[in-house]
């Protein structure tokens, strides 16, 4: 079973400024309502610790493997619930520079595994709302710094 959530928002700042806030992992929990913490050496091939979940829900803890960490462009990791194949998620933060100097922030995740069907309703509601809440908070945080 497979499923994808894909959201995006335009941020009135350069990819470098968005990247600066997005990768300030020590301060994630101060502004980010969805990704509560990211710890570890975030670089390709490494395992990190991620705590995430929409506000009002019990946070989930993962130890994903970083698949991409391309400065000012993309962070991508692959996490598993318990063991691979049950519920896997490839989480992506992508920054696209627009001609007007703004950034399109794309926040997505591809899910696969035997539990995806059972989780589909929650993914479409709570998790997607969490992505959108994070996108809005990132926009507010970055644009407040750019003023």
Short summary of the structure?
The chain is of the alpha+beta class and 147 residues long.
Order of helices and strands: EHHEEEEEEEH
The CATH superfamily turns out to be START domain
Topology, number of strands = 8
Mean pLDDT: 93
Could you tell me how far the N terminus lies from the C terminus, measured between alpha carbons in angstroms?
45 Å
The spatial strand order of the largest sheet comes to: 1-8-7-6-5
Estimated radius of gyration: 15 Å
Give the structural class: alpha+beta
Per CATH, the class reads: Alpha Beta
Domains, number: 1
Helix content: 25-40%
User: What fraction strand?
Assistant: 35-45%
* Inertia-based shape: globular
> CATH topology, which one?
Alpha-D-Glucose-1,6-Bisphosphate, Chain A, domain 4
Q: With helices defined by DSSP (H or I, 4 residues minimum), what is the helix count?
A: 3
CATH architecture: 2-Layer Sandwich
**The biggest beta sheet, please?**
5 strands, antiparallel
Uncertain stretches of 5 or more adjacent residues: none
Protein architecture, described:
By secondary structure, the chain is α+β, with helices and mostly antiparallel strands. The chain has one domain: START domain (Alpha-D-Glucose-1,6-Bisphosphate, Chain A, domain 4). It is 29% helix and 37% strand. The chain is built from three helices and eight strands; from the N terminus they run βααβββββββα. It has helices at 15-22, 28-31, 116-146; strands at 2-11, 35-39, 49-52, 60-62, 65-70, 74-80, 88-97, 103-112. It has a five-stranded antiparallel beta sheet, covered by helices on one side. The model has no long low-confidence stretch (mean pLDDT 93).
